[in-house]
Every structure is written in C-alpha cells, then in structure tokens.
Amino acid sequence: MLRRGGARWLSCALVASATALVHASMSTPSSASSGRIGVPTPERARALSFGFEPVIADYYWIQALQVVGDPERPARRNQTVSALIDLVTGLDPWVDHPYRFAALWLTENEDEVRHANRLLEQGIAYHPLDWRNRFYLGYNLFFYLEDNARAADALESALASPGAPDYLGSFVTRLRASGDSLDTAVLFLQQLIAQTEDEYAKAEYLGVLDEIETERRARMLDRARAEFQRRNGRDIAAPGELWTGPQRVLTGAPAAHPQIAGQRWVIDRASGEIVSSFYGRRYRIHSNPADEADKRAWRERSSGAAAATAESRS
Predict the structure, then answer these.
(1) What does the angle CA 51 – CA 11 – CA 24 come to, to the nearest 5 degrees?
(2) Which of 5, 166, 250, 283 has minimal Cβ neighbours within 10 Å of its Cβ?
(3) Residue 207 neighbours by CB distance under 10 Å
(4) 3-class DSSP state for residue 117?
C-alpha cells in the first residue's frame, strides 16, 4: 500500500496529468487572457479528467476570470467566456457562482442573454432552493427580453425559496399587472398577504393592493374618456367633465383612493394620463431614464450583432 504522502503525491500527479491532457486538447497554445483560446467540449474534457471533473472545472473557472479581467478587451472575448462557462458547468454542474457570472457577463446581445438563461435554468435544476438564480433569470427576461409574464413566473418561484427578499412580491405584482392582468395581480397579492407572517411585509402588500384598486378605477376612467372623445369629438380638459356637465358620460366618479378620503382625479401634465392625486402616477413598472437609455443601447447592439451574424452566414 502507498503511504499517505505517496497517495497524496499520486493524486496530485493524476490531477496535473488530467489538466495537461485537457489543456492539450485546446486548439491554440496562447493564454486564456488573449481571449482567443479554443476551449474543449465538456464531453472531451470529461473523458480525459480521470474522475477529477471538479478540479478541472476549477481550473477553467480561473481561466474564465482571467479572460474577463483583461483590460484590453480582446476580440471574441465573450465567445470564449461562454465556452468556458459551458465547460465548467458541464464538468461540474453543482458549481454555484458561474451560473450567475454568466448572467452578468453574457449580455451583449439577445443570443448571449438566451444562452445565459439556459445556464441559469441548469443552475436552478441543480440548486432548486437558491433564489438568486431564479432572480437573475427573471431580471434577464424582464430587462433584456421584455417577457414580463415569464419574468413574473421566475420571480414568483424565487419567493418560495429561503432567504428571498420580500420586495420581490411587489415586483411580481407589477409584472402581472403590466399585461393588463390586474385580476391576476390581485389574486397573487392576496395569496402573499395570506401567507406572510411578517407584519411589515403584509402592510406593504396591503398598500400595493390599494394602488392596484386605484389603477383599476383609473382604467375605467380611461374607457370613459375614450367614449367622451367619440361622442364629442374632443378630449376632456379635466377629469370632472366625465361625470359633470351636459357632455358627461358617467353618472358619478369613483373615489381616487379606496381608503383615504379627499383625493382627486387629475390629469398628469407630463403623460396626459388621468391619475389619482394621492399617487401622482399610474400603477406600472417604473424605470429611470438611465435604465431606459441602457435598454435602448442594448437593443441597438443586439440588432447589429444579429444582422452581422446573418450576413456572415449568407
């Protein structure tokens, strides 16, 4: 039998040999930081790993970090990062951070985002109780792919995971409501209120429920406004025209807040929408101008990349 020191030395030698064999399968001897290395497939790397897949995965995880740390931004860097993360998660699917690393890094165009989402879905399969992978998936679906329904599904599933922040519930409610599905949003919110034991969270959800009811009433006024325009050939000067005067289309006005008296319906000067004076805005997902500018820039880059890919294939 080998002594303990000899066994340790043999294990190290096997790891080194496996790493060398996998590294030799790459198509170029250049370093990972060049961003132009050829990365072996997970299947080939696994066949040469002699059972040391997690160790080999750690090695290539370090290579991925080196690639993104290159300050000169080498050409095709994201393709290399994508291949390396595929290799790492293929060798050791139980890894944790690389899944979210892909979500943060692979965002240059739609294909990259969808690739990152597939990795996140794999991460969810191997770490079903970790809310973070579901959160990043929901964010990608919302911000980049503008798929609010699927984003809400992903974030709602995150809420059931240990450690998930309470604010996700309010965000899911807004996502549900963004598709004109206020009833779905209300049902989801009522479920949250019934389940939560945190009184502060419950108070927040009850406040959101009031805001949704106010939005429901505002949408009713929107329909009345459209009917007013159809009948009279002009827009209203103030919400009161909808329920007062000879050209009214309503017999009365709904309260501008379900709980707080004395609120009024007004027309927001910036948007032209009918809003409650209590909120001063309509109930929807709000993003700041910088986020919107980033999103527009991303769409332009993504469209350009897609066009370039299509041209190269033709």
Answers:
(1) 65
(2) 5
(3) 12
(4) helix
Three-state SS for 244?
Answer: coil
Q: Two tokens at 190?
A: 């009522």
For residue 110, give the amino acid letter. Answer: E
Which among 257, 273, 277, 254 has a CA at the least distance from the CA of 265? Answer: 277
In this predicted structure, the answer to whether residue 310 has a pLDDT above a threshold of 90 is no
Burial profile 278-313: b = 16 or more Cβ within 10 angstroms, e = fewer? ebeebbeeeeeeeeeeeeeebeeebeeeeeeeeeee
pTM of the model as a whole: 0.65
State how far the Cα of 14 lies from the Cα of 39, in Å rounded to an integer. Answer: 21
pLDDT at 218: 96
- Residue 192 tokens read as 């949250």
Q: Using CA of residue 22, residue 23, residue 24, residue 25, what is the dihedral sign?
A: positive
